[in-house]
C-alpha cells in the first residue's frame, strides 16, 4: 500500500491514477489538508467509491501532533511506502505558514515514517535549490551542493531536502529518495513557472539569456511513479528533455519580454515583493539570468524513466492551451 501526502495538489492528482492502475499496488491512501473532490461539485463519498483502491484522510502537517496522527493512519492502513508531496509549488508572502508546512511538516513526516516503520519514502524537492549562478556547471548532477539564494521559500525547501537525506543516512533500514523537480508547465495556476510564463508581459534580465528546461506535469507524475516502482534511493533530478534559451521560450509563447538591468530589477522586485504587489521575489531574477540546467541521467539509469514530452512540445501544448483538454488526473474519473 502506498500513501501520498499533498495528494490533491496538481502533481498528486496526476500521480494517484498511476498508482491506482499499478497492479503491484493494492491500495492508495491520499492525505491532504483538503478533502477529496475539493473545488468540484462532486460528493466525496461518491468520488472515493469510484476509485476502488483509493481512500482519503484529511491531515494538516503543519499542526502540532501531525506526526502522531500520520503515524496512526499509516499503521492502521498498513502502508509500506509514503510519497511526500505536501510542499508549496510557488513562493508565498505567508512565510511563517510556508516554514511550518515545508520544514516542520517534513519533520513530522520523518517522525511518522520512523514510528510506523515505513520501508520506502519518496520526498518532493526542487531543482531550484541548487541555485542559479555563473559558477554552475553546464549540467548539474545530484552531488552538486544545494545553495539556493537567500529566499525564504527556497531555503525552506533546501532544508527539507537535507532533512530527508540525513534521515536516510542515519536510518539505512528505510529506503529514502528525493525528487528534485525542475521547471514545470501545466494547468496549476499556483505553480511558479506556469504563472510566470502565462503572462503576456514577462520579466527578463538585460544582457542575459539562460537555458531553461521545462516539463509537463504528467511527466513529473510518471517519474515519481517510476521511482516508487524501482525503490530508487538517494537524490534524483527530475527535469525536462531538451533545453532552450529563455528568449526562444518567450518567442514560442508569443510573450513580450520586459527587460530590466540586473541591479535595478532586483531592487524593484524587492520593493514590490515587500509591498505584496508582486508574486516574484527579487532573488528569483537570478533564474532568468544564469542557467541552472540539471542532468537527468541518474533517474533514467536507475528507473528507466525518460520524459515523454520534450521542451518544444511542452511549449507548444502550453501556448495553444492543449493541456487544458488533456488528462487532469482524477478530474475526468470523478
Structural summary, described in words:
The structure is a single chain. By secondary structure, the chain is α/β, with parallel strands linked by helices. It has helices spanning 12-21, 44-49, 66-77, 95-116, 152-170, 192-197, 217-230, 246-252, 262-274, 297-303, 311-320, and strands spanning 2-5, 28-32, 54-58, 81-84, 120-126, 175-181, 183-185, 201-205, 211-212, 214-216, 234-238, 244-245, 256-260. The protein has a single domain (2-184, 215-239, 293-308, 324-333), classed as NAD(P)-binding Rossmann-like Domain (Rossmann fold). It has eleven helices and 13 strands. Strands 3-2-1-4-5-6-11 form a seven-stranded parallel sheet, with helices on both faces. Helix 2 links the parallel strand 2 and strand 3. The longest helix is centred in the first third of the chain and has 22 residues, at 95-116. The model has no long low-confidence stretch (mean pLDDT 87).
The tally of structural domains comes to 1
For the termini, the CA-CA separation is: 22 Å
What is the CATH homologous superfamily assignment? NAD(P)-binding Rossmann-like Domain
The SSE order reads: EHEHEHEHEHEEHEEEHEEHEHHH
Mean pLDDT: 87
Number of helical stretches of at least 4 residues: 11
Global shape:
globular
What's the number of extended β-strand segments?
A: 13
In angstroms, what is the radius of gyration?
A: 19 Å
Which topology does CATH recognise?
Rossmann fold
Low-confidence stretches: none
Largest sheet data: 7 strands, parallel
Percent helix: 25-40%
CATH architecture: 3-Layer(aba) Sandwich
Question: Can you identify the CATH class?
Answer: Alpha Beta
Strand order of the largest sheet: 3-2-1-4-5-6-11
Q: How large is the share of residues in beta strands?
A: 15-25%
Classification by helices and strands: alpha/beta
